Amino acid sequence: MSTDVYRKLAATLDTLPNGFPATADGLEITLLKKIFTPDEAELFCDLRLTFETPEQIAERTGRPLAGLAERLTAMWQRGQLFGVDFGEVVVFKMVHWVFGIYEFQLERMDQEFAQLAEAYNEHFGPQFFKGKPQLMQVLPVEQTLTEKHDPLPYQQVSAIINTGESFGLGECICKKEQKLLGKGCDAPLEICIGIAPVPGFFNSHRTFRPISKKEAFEALERAEAAGLVHMTSNVKSGHYYICNCCGCCCGVLRSVNKWGLNEATNSHYYARIDQEACIQCGVCREERCQVQAVAENDETFEIDPSRCIGCGLCISTCPSESIALIHQQPDEYTPVPADEQAWFEARGRARGVDFSRFQ
Question: Rounded mean pLDDT of the chain?
């Protein structure tokens, strides 16, 4: 009976736009058993992708209201769903495996969980990161953008930060997982930025500590100094995080390096080296590029525009100032959905799944 409810949960997650593919050996069931009790799995399947109060959930599902708010809050605290406390009203919704449940397991991440997640990513990653629209878009180092680029607000880290009312800083679960597996790198671990449209959101957060807007910008500077790529959700509005990612740990960038999925991120720019100005120092290739887009040929360096993600990290540290960002043409990148709901609908259509009962 308990296995049946986990299969129901797995099927529910696979019906959502992001997917949760089954494996021959039931690895996905083992993962879910580590995260959910049978009762929690059943309750998750009764939720929707849109926020509801406990009263609304009880009325819609026929569940008893008594104790429901407490159960939902406990699941929120365990990273099994998402909630927002507005003071007088608390609302909850289900989340995908990625971006969602996996990222919320930061406190639960131990070596066993890391091994399970890494093994499951071999099944999940190739199918997920081939899909369109992409989960994330790249935000260039802002100093590499000029007026001629005419960047839109959702392509600028400063514009996204400035939409927030409160901010948090937390550890990167990708880096934590890889360190537990004996891999990883020396990049800063506490480097993920959370953004909320309401004041005080991170004051009692489980895994993110509250920071000021100034400290959020300082975290971006630390990320750039460490050669980390700024990425956020692939939408025009409603951003609530900025990840700062390396090619050795980040699930998205590893899909570029490991499986050659060059379009795993949505990028609006690519970099180009001026061969006459280049002094062949190799900093761009050896120290800055996270996706192996720079090639050395006969003592010259060239950037593969089909692989470059337009992060600008090579430009900001080029001693000869011989690299520049080139704006892609509209037909060279995937149109960015208006918001999260539009993203869900586009991804659901692309996967051919009907998730209307969860809306």
Answer: 94
d(CA 262, CA 134): 11
Per residue in 243-271, pLDDT tens? 999 999 999 999 999 999 998 999 999 99
Share of the chain above pLDDT 70, in %: 100
Q: CA 247, 332, 195: angle at the middle one, nearest 5?
A: 50
Strands 90-93 and 82-85, bridge-based pairing: antiparallel
pLDDT of residue 1: 47
Q: How many CA atoms lie within 13 A of 306 on its CB side?
A: 2
Helical segments of the chain, H only: 2-15, 27-35, 38-45, 54-61, 68-77, 111-129, 157-162, 173-180, 213-225, 251-259, 283, 313-316, 340-351
Residue 232: predicted pLDDT:
97
Average pLDDT over residues 188-195: 97
Gap between the Cα atoms of 310 and 307, Å rounded: 9
Tell me which H or E stretch contains 229: strand 229-233
Task: Give the residue carrying structure tokens 């998205």.
Answer: 252
Each domain of the chain, given as residue ranges in start order, spans 2-125, 137-259, 269-332
| CATH code, residues 269-332 | 3.30.70.20
Q: What is the mean pLDDT of residues 179-195?
A: 95
CATH number assigned to the domain covering 2-125: 1.10.10
Angle, CA 160 vertex, CA 155 and CA 164 arms, to 5°: 170
Report yes or no: 339 and 235 within 8 Å, Cβ to Cβ: yes
Distance of CA 276 to the CA centre of its chain: 38
